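Why this split exists: single-chain examples teach little about how molecules sit against one another. For that reason, every record in the complexes split bundles all components of an assembly together and asks for one structure covering all of them. Below is a record exactly as it appears in the raw files.
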Amino acid sequence: MEALKHAIDFSDFPRVDLFVAGSVALFLVLFPFFPHSSFAMATMIQFLMFSLYGMGWNTIGGYGGQVDLGKAQYVGIGAFTTAVMLIRWDIPFWISMPIGMLLAVTWSFIIGYPLFRLTGHYFAIATIATSLILKDLFEVWEFVGAARGLEILPFKYQSPDFLRLIFKEDVYYYYILLGFFFIGLLYVNWFRKSRLGFYLRSIKDNEDVARSLGINVHWAKIKTYAIATAFVSLVGSFHACYIKNIEPEDTMSLDLSILIALMAMLGGAGSLWGPIIGAGILLPLKSYLKEWFGAKAGLVGIDLIIYALIIMLISAFEPRGIWGIIEKIRQRRRR
Amino acid sequence: MDILFSSIIAGLLFGMVLALVSLGLTIIFGVMDIVNFAHGEFLMIGMYTGLLTSQVTGMDPLLGLPVAAAIGFGLGVLCYYGFIRYLLRGPMLAQLLGTFGLMLFLRNSALLVFGSEDRVVHHGVLVGKSFDLGMGVIIPATKLAAAGLSVAAFLATWLLMNRSRIGKALTATSLDAQGARYMGIPTEKMNALAWGVGGGTVTIAGAVLVNFWPVNPFVGLLFTMIAFTIVALGGFGSVPGAFFAGLVVGLITEIPGFWDFFTYTFDADWMLNVPMTSFKYMMVYVTYFVIMVIRPRGLFGWKH
């Protein structure tokens, strides 16, 4: 009960924030009732998926300050568990998703234990390496479809299938994901006020001081890494049902790992709203740039060039992200 | 036995090339504590430079080396003054993602200019020639030249870092940038120099690599990851470390050859079924992970 009270307690934010957050939440709930294109719907679903990825990453990368660039392997574990179980044994999403989460978390404990003995750049590159190891393994593993990946055939199922999460209309996916989104938001809101959340912030500020205060730094990092993993694996499972065609190349690639960290950083790592802001700006930008420029003949890659320039500008001039800009303005006004 | 010998030699030669690829990364990291994701893209630019100088002027691709070095040096200095200088003020996460942005930018610019198809060098003094050492060991001339160049570049860099005033200034900057500034060393220029030398060596590597490796805009990522592994294995910032780690990684990429050797020696059928070639690069990452966990500063590392 205490935890629930903390989870729904947003009172430490200024009233303006809550007003904006409330109107955004209202907009998200009502979005399917507005006239929209199917492309806009797909973009919104991607936005929700990436905010969830970002929220998960934010626990270890934002609050904990550990530069984790290997989250894609857990997307892969979640996605492949769900897909394999559905295709081979017809096990519904609501059972395979927790199993996938469990597998991902177990794996995260196994590699997290040695991983967190490293710090700084060594840690960052080691996370990339672990992710690529798993991807290479999946690419030769026949059981999960090797490099071809797996395909869930939607015509085998009756369309609004709430157990297996197979729908023809995107609206159903949207609302289910929105549910996860709100639960995830409440969880992170609880997390940042929990004991572990405070541990992590003190580790980020100064690891030696945190250790001298009696915090088990290694174990706190591993636990948080597992929490982040659970988030990412959940969205991975959803991804399998939504996209229906998964390959190691796109669910476990380095680009995805980095995109997850990138969105959280651009929004503002280490704040509750940061990952959502980051995904809300970057993801539509990416999709629409691709929509406008991607198909033009002779201009292949121009959308990603513009996108890369924006990333470079923000990381050079405002490394604390958009939330950092807002906080800076607020501090100036307070003076 | 033939397979064993030729695997070892091929591994060592390729390892020297890989060491040359990662030399620039280790210099840059050693001097200013920044991991450059765009490193493989510099390599790609070097490869295209070698390819285009031979195609446009009709000369041998080897003559593209000085051009590639000049372009790489210029590009490195430009990147430093135009972008990296600002990145250095931010936290580590922003630095990593900023260089990732640079990588996306360079890669897609290449895609825009050159298109996505593979390109190969067909003509040249060395292309297609090889030496037969007997015992079934055949050395392609391109690889031998690349390995020789790598050794030369490493010796030159080692001399530069340890025997010259500029090298001492670079080392001082990497040990303590603020202290070096008090001693009158222009650290800003030293950083730019490190980027220039880093860019120059990797584009040279690209210009020799293009003789035996097809080039496309996406070639960089694999080499970036291998270079990260080599640099971390040798210890960030250690020049001799990078060379020996390069040899180790080169031998690891030849593991499928060793696997074949043991398969034939022991006449083991089950070993035939293991798709070792697909595990080639995975082995590199596994080695990296294991060595990092056992010895977190790398084999020759002195920074952390």
